[in-house]
Specification:
Blueprint lengths: L28 E3 L5 E3 L4 E8 L6 E8 H45 L6 H11 L11 H18 L6 H23 L12 H25 L8 H25 L5 H16 L47
Antiparallel strand pairs: 1-2, 3-4
Helix pairs in contact: 1-2, 1-3, 1-4, 3-5, 5-6
Length: about 325
C-alpha cells in the first residue's frame, strides 16, 4: 500500500526477501497449522511510517484499513443521496402546486373571474395535504428525515468528520425549503388533537445514546492504536469508555435540566399565588369597559395580496362572501 517501501522479490517471484520490512502487516494476518500465513478481514490500504526523532529509521507504521476507506465512501454516498432525495421531495410539491395554480389563474382570467385565496387553499389541499404519504409532508416524514440525518452525523462522525460540513450547508437549504413549503404550499391541517412532537425527543435521545456506543466501538476496533490491542484489552477499553461517556451524559442531563430554574421558581410562585387567591370571587368587569369583538374581521380572503403567490393573480373576488 502507499507509504510502505516496496520489498525486493527473490528471483523475480512473488516471494519477498527475508530482509523486507513487513511490520505494517502486524495485526492483519494469521497463521495456519501448515505454516502458511493469510491476511484476513480488514487489511492496510494506506500506511504512514513512524521515525525515531529526525532520523530516517522506520520503527513502525500506522495504517488505514480498507474497511475504513470503504465506510467513508459509503457514508459520503449515503449522506449525499439522502440530502438530494430530501431536497427533491421538497421541490416537487412546490412545483406541482405552482403549475396547478397558474393554470387555474389563466382559466379564471379567460372567464373574467378572479382567482381567490380560498381557491388557492383548495389547490393546496388537493396536491399537498399534511398527511402521511402525501406531497405536503407529515409529522412522521418530516421528523424522520431529520432523525436519519442526525443518526448518520452522530453515529459515524468519528469516521468521516466532513459529514458535519455537509450537514451544515444541506440543512440550511432543507430548512428554508421546509419553511416555504409549510407556509405557502402545504394545506392547513384539520385541527385534530395529537401527541405533538414530544415523542420525537425520545427518538433523538435514543440516537444520542446509541451514537456513544457506535463511536466507541469504531474507535476500539478500527482506529490506531487500539485496533492492535488484544481482544480482552479491547473489550475492557470499550466497556470503560462507553460507561464513562454514558455517565457523563446522565450528569450533564441532570445539571442542565430541560426547564431552567428561574422558570421553575416562577411556576412555584404562580401556584402559591393561585392557592392564596382561590377563595376570592372573580372580578366583575362592567359591560361598557369590555371590548366588542363583533366587528373584528378574522377572514383570510381579503389578505390575498400578502401571500407569496399573489403575484400570480390571487385576489379576493367581489362576489365572494366573507368568512
Amino acid at each position: 500500500p502507499p507509504g510502505v517501501p516496496h520489498p525486493g522479490f527473490v528471483n523475480g517471484t512473488e516471494e519477498a526477501a527475508t530482509t523486507a520490512n513487513l511490520t505494517w502487516l502486524e495485526g492483519h494476518y494469521r497463521g495456519n497449522p501448515g505454516g502458511g500465513v493469510c491476511i484476513h478481514g480488514c487489511f492496510p490500504h494506506t500506511c504512514f511510517p513512524h521515525h525515531v526523532g529526525n532520523s530516517t529509521e522506520v520503527v513502525g507504521f500506522s495504517c488505514v484499513t480498507n474497511c475504513i476507506v470503504g465506510l467513508e465512501r459509503s457514508l459520503r454516498t449515503v449522506y449525499l443521496l439522502h440530502v438530494g432525495c430530501t431536497v427533491t421531495f421538497l421541490l416537487i410539491p412546490i412545483a406541482l402546486t405552482r403549475i396547478s395554480v397558474e393554470r387555474e389563474i389563466l382559466k379564471e382570467k379567460a372567464e373574467g373571474k378572479v382567482f381567490s385565496l380560498l381557491q388557492l387553499q383548495a389547490k393546496c389541499c388537493a396536491y399537498a395535504s399534511y398527511e402521511y404519504m402525501s406531497w405536503g409532508g407529515s409529522q412522521v416524514e418530516d421528523f424522520l428525515e431529520l432523525a436519519i440525518g442526525f443518526a448518520l452525523l452522530t453515529c459515524f462522525g468519528i469516521v468521516l468528520p466532513e459529514v458535519a460540513v455537509y450537514a451544515l450547508f444541506s440543512h440550511i437549504v432543507e430548512y428554508r425549503l421546509l419553511a416555504y413549503r409549510m407556509t405557502n404550499i402545504t394545506c392547513r391541517p384539520f385541527p385534530l388533537s395529537s401527541d405533538g412532537i414530544g415523542t420525537w425527543q425520545q427518538v433523538f435521545e435514543g440516537i444520542s445514546m446509541f451514537a456513544v456506543a457506535t463511536n466507541v466501538g469504531l474507535a476500539v476496533t478500527q482506529m490506531h492504536p487500539m485496533r492492535s490491542w488484544s481482544s480482552d484489552t479491547k473489550l475492557g477499553a470499550f466497556v470503560l469508555m462507553e460507561h464513562s461517556l454514558a455517565a457523563m451524559y446522565v450528569v450533564l442531563t441532570y445539571v442542565f435540566a430541560a426547564e431552567p430554574w428561574d422558570v421553575k421558581r416562577a411556576e412555584d410562585f404562580n401556584n402559591v399565588f393561585k392557592k392564596k387567591n382561590a377563595w376570592r370571587q372573580p372580578l366583575k368587569v362592567p359591560r361598557k369597559s369590555t371590548s366588542d369583538y363583533w366587528s373584528v374581521d378574522v377572514s383570510i380572503v381579503g389578505r390575498a395580496d400578502s401571500h407569496p403567490l399573489s403575484k400570480m393573480g390571487c385576489a379576493h373576488s367581489p362576489d365572494e362572501d366573507w368568512l
